[in-house]
Every structure is written in C-alpha cells, then in structure tokens.
From TrEMBL:
One GO term of the biological process aspect: carbohydrate metabolic process
Parent sequence residues shown: 244 to 614 of 614
Main function: Catalyzes the first step in hexosamine metabolism, converting fructose-6P into glucosamine-6P using glutamine as a nitrogen source.
Gene Ontology terms: cellular component: cytosol
Domain SIS: 45-184, 217-361
Location of this chain's protein in the cell: Cytoplasm
Catalytic site: K366
Protein name per the record: Glutamine--fructose-6-phosphate aminotransferase [isomerizing]
Enzyme Commission code: 2.6.1.16
Organism: Nocardioides caeni
Quaternary state and interactors: Homodimer.
Catalytic activity: D-fructose 6-phosphate + L-glutamine = D-glucosamine 6-phosphate + L-glutamate
GO MF, one example: glutamine-fructose-6-phosphate transaminase (isomerizing) activity
Keywords: Aminotransferase, Cytoplasm, Glutamine amidotransferase, Repeat, Transferase
Length: 371
C-alpha cells in the first residue's frame, strides 16, 4: 500500500529517499570523544590487522561495485593491497589466500549463494573472513569470523539503493579503522574524514531536493535504446552501478566505462545523440578532473549528448555539458555517496515512465540463493 511506501509509488523510491537517514545511522557511535574510531563488533584483534598482507573483497551485483569503491579507499588510506573479485569467479581460479589474507564479503541479504560459497572456500584456505551485511543472523555473517552490520533497515526493492550506500559507509569505516591500527600517515586525518562523512546525509538531501530535474531528464529518454556511463577513479564504479540500475529497471542497454578506456574501444560506439552520463571527479590536486574533461570533449565532438554530474562551482565543465547536474563538494573518495543518487533517480523514473514494475523487475530476484 501507499502507506507502507511513505506515499511513494515504489519501495525503491522510498528507499532512495531514506538514504540520508541510512547513512547517518551507519555512522552512529563510531567516533569516541578522543577522536578514535571504534568498530567493536568487528572482532578482529589489532595484531591480526597488523599482520594482514592482502585484502580480497568478494561480492556480486551492486555489492561488487561497493567493493570496487572500497579498493580505492582502503589502498589509499591503509597502503594494504586490495583485490576485488566477483564471488562467482573467486573459488574457481585457485586464488592465493592464506592466514594473512583478509577476505571481505559484502552482501546486503547475507544469503547470496555465490558469495557464501566463496567465503567457505576462503576459510578452507585459512583466510579470515569479515562480512559486511545488512541482515542480522543471515548465512554469510554466521559463517564469517567477523562482521560489520550496515544499518539500512529492510530493503524491499530488488535493485539495491540504501543497501549500497551503507555498504560504502561500512567500507570507509573499515578502511579508516585499519589505517588507525596500522598507524599509516592517514591515521592523523581520520577525524577530518569522519567529519566529512558525517556531512554526507545533508549533502544527499541537497541532491534529493533536485530530484525533479533528474525525473524530467529521465522522461526525455523513454525512447532511448542505449546509454553510456563514464567515470574515473572512485567515479568508475559509480558509472558501472548507474548502468546496472538502468539495465535492471528500464531494460535499456547501458554500459559503464572507465573514461580513460574510451580511446581503446568504447569511443567507436559514440553516435549522434547517444546519451553519455559523465561522473566528473572533483577538482583536486591530481589530474583526474582535467583528464575527465578531455574525455567528455571527445565524445561530444563525435555527437554524444553529454549529461554531466559535476560539483558545485565547477565552471570549467559548462561549455561541454549538454545537461549539467550539480553535486555537493566532497572529496573524490567520498563522491560515490552523492554521485550515485541522481543515477538511481534516473533509472527509477525512466522505468516508471516505461510502465515497468520497479520493485520487481523481470527475471531478477532480491537475493539469489542458487549458484
Ligand atoms: C541480486 C540483487 C542485486 C544485488 C545482488 C547481490 O542480484 O538483485 O540488487 O546487488 O543480488 O546481493 P547481496 O544481497 O549479496 O548484496
């Protein structure tokens, strides 16, 4: 009923609008008065964390993209090597895993068969397994050595939204915690990054306040047969997740690419009027922003319709954006938390306009309990 959905037409739309609260809930109680980060329920001894020489993240679907973002954050803040692998591929390739490996399984439901089988395999090889999960007492946390629960609340829509955002938060917390224990140079910045994370719910509200602009854009695309998504760095998994949402809900062909790969193939796809959604990294000290800008110019010169997501105050993007959606100013590693919102809204609205069942897309299940 409409009441269960807080007056929204779909659970998914309700869950998109619950994201500021879901992120805030996932941050509660993590920072002590002395500015230390605490992750008590994790049950991994400091000694075990110091001895880690590799982290392997395994997951499926949207959770896999959260894992891709986590790799950027964990490696940058902790200097621990991270691999991200699809759970369904992991155990079939004879992975190199031992008792100095931490395997992190990310699963909203905690029941995904591919992920469950992968952690069983990892534990047989004596790896420590940490689950990041939204469902208390489900199979994956039960079979793991340690767990960080996300606090999204029940997610009903088949396509994950608030589940994804809270997974990102859990991954950032894990990364910062490892940095704290290992005493990397980013250890000193934990407080500052936590403060930036605590500002994210308000930033998401700002993005949600512009939902109508995204809805209008979505409705303009009801007869589109293909949409491309471009991103770089932490924006690359955002592009992949934006494309996945569109496939899942609108049944439209969509692909995400790392913008730097354009010239190695994808640019051949660019045709007059093809919509290309571009996740523009914040202007930083690195060259990411400039490189992204030149990618956008290249696709536009070949006829693409560029729809750019760029931070407030970024005027350099204006000449190359056919459509410009503004994002709040946040550091590049945290940008996925705000940049994914318009892409979720876009897919939800486009699927609605096409008359699809957004909460139960054809052929898909909320949790896939067969391999
Ligand atoms: C299914 C759902 C996706 C989800 C994936 C992984 O395919 O439709 O939305 O991302 O499973 O689920 P999990 O519960 O393991 O995160």
């Amino acid at each position: 009923s409409a009441a269960e959905k807080d007056g929204h037409d779909w659970f998914m739309r309700k869950e998109i609008f619950e994201q500021p609260r879901a992120v805030a809930d996932s941050l509660i109680g993590r920072r002590t008065a002395r500015g230390q980060l605490q992750l008590d329920e994790m049950r991994l001894a400091d000694e075990e964390i110091r001895e880690l020489d590799k982290i392997i993240i395994i997951a499926c679907g949207t959770s896999f993209y959260a894992g891709m973002v986590a790799k950027y954050a964990i490696e940058h803040w902790t200097r621990t090597p991270v691999e991200v692998e699809l759970a369904s591929e992991f155990r079939y390739r004879d992975p190199i895993v031992d008792n100095t490996t931490l395997v992190v399984a990310i699963s909203q439901s905690g029941e995904t068969a591919d992920t469950l089988q992968a952690i069983r395999h990892a534990r047989e090889q004596r790896a420590k397994v940490l689950a990041i999960c939204n469902t208390n007492g489900s199979s994956i946390p039960r079979e793991s050595d340690a767990v960080i629960y996300t606090h999204a609340g029940p997610e009903i829509g088949v396509a994950s939204t608030k589940g994804f955002l809270t997974q990102l938060v859990a991954c950032y917390l894990l990364a910062l915690y490892i940095a704290q224990v290992k005493g990397t140079r980013f250890g000193d910045e934990i407080d500052e990054i936590m403060e930036q994370l605590e500002e994210i719910p308000a930033h998401i509200d700002t993005v949600l306040a512009d939902a109508d602009q995204v809805y209008e854009l979505a409705r303009e695309h009801v007869s589109t047969s293909s949409v491309l998504f471009l991103g770089r760095h932490a924006g690359y998994p955002v592009a992949l997740e934006g494309a996945l949402k569109l496939k899942e809900l609108a049944y439209i062909h969509a692909e995400g690419f790392a913008a730097g790969e354009l010239k190695h193939g994808p640019i051949a796809l660019i045709d007059e009027g093809l919509p290309v959604l571009c996740v523009v990294p914040p202007k930083g000290r690195d060259q990411l922003h400039g490189k992204m800008l030149s990618g956008i110019q290249e696709v536009r010169a070949r006829g693409a319709r560029t729809i750019c997501l760029a931070e407030e105050g970024d005027t350099s993007i204006e000449p190359y954006a056919d459509v410009l959606l503004r994002l709040p100013k946040v550091p590049v590693l945290l940008q996925p938390l705000v940049a994914i919102i318009p892409l979720q809204l876009f897919a939800c609205e486009l699927a609605t306009a096409l008359g699809h069942d957004v909460d139960q897309p054809r052929n898909l299940a909320k949790s896939v309990t067969v391999e």
